[in-house]
Amino acid sequence: MATTSARLLQLAIPLVKTHGFTREALSRSVLSLPTPHAQPLPDAAITSLFGQGDNARKSLIDTWLEDAREQMKATQSTVVKDVLWARLQHNEPVLNYLPDAFAVLASSSTFLPLDPEPAITHAAKVANEACWIAYPTEKSWHTRRASIAAIYLASELHQLTSPSTTYQFLSSLIETSSAAETSLTEAQIFGSYVFKSWAGIVKSTGVFL
Predict the structure, then answer these.
(1) Total domains in the fold of the chain
(2) Which domain holds residue 185?
(3) Cα separation of 173 and 147, whole Å?
(4) What is the pLDDT of residues 114-144, one digit of tens each?
């Protein structure tokens, strides 16, 4: 992606709090340039820079998610629960927009009406970053990654429906029955259940009606 496009995507990140993951947020990003434009970008320019329809929104969503993972590195603690909680806190200002954002990602496949890959990839990348932070010297931390990804995705799902109890929910998953040490098979079963619930929230946005 051209440097100009990448810069505008970065400038659009703070605008997500007020405008959501929208083409409007991208349009208004030029107002935050060191030398601001007099007017937001016209829709034709958004299409030229970022693609048609939801392709532009997907670029913004992906950039926001990447930035959120980058912010995890600033977490003071190296305890995995604290690292995951810091990532979940990053969701709070845009929480109302996340179901729609996930729906956009899930509908990006040309073959599946509801593509599970974006949810799996999202959780795996968060887990990967958390493991690098929490277990920097352990050679076997990759064995924890599947269970941490499942725990994170379950906690994010819970956050979408009950934000005020998210920390307690995250803590219970990690602490109960050595959740962070669960086997790969258990993580896969748990992850399958979580994805079905996540898919239900995505469908509730109305995108697939």
Answers:
(1) 2
(2) 75-203
(3) 10
(4) 777 888 899 999 999 999 999 888 776 667 7
Residue labelled with tokens 């340039």: 33
182-189, long-range: CB < 8 A, 24+ apart:
182/147, 182/150, 183/147, 184/143, 184/146, 184/147, 186/147, 187/146, 187/147, 187/149, 187/150, 188/146
Whether the CB-CB separation of 154 and 190 falls below 8 Å is answered with yes
Same-domain pairing of 125 and 185 = yes
- If we measure between CA atoms, which residue out of 53, 92, 94, 91 comes closest to residue 207? 53
Tell me: the pLDDT tens digits for 77-126? 999 999 999 999 999 999 999 999 988 988 865 555 677 788 889 999 99
DSSP assignment, residue 41?
Answer: P
Integer Cα distance of 11 and 14 in angstroms: 7
Q: Are residues 87 and 145 both part of a single domain? A: yes
H or E segment to which residue 140 belongs: none
Q: Which two tokens stand for residue 116?
A: 């599970």
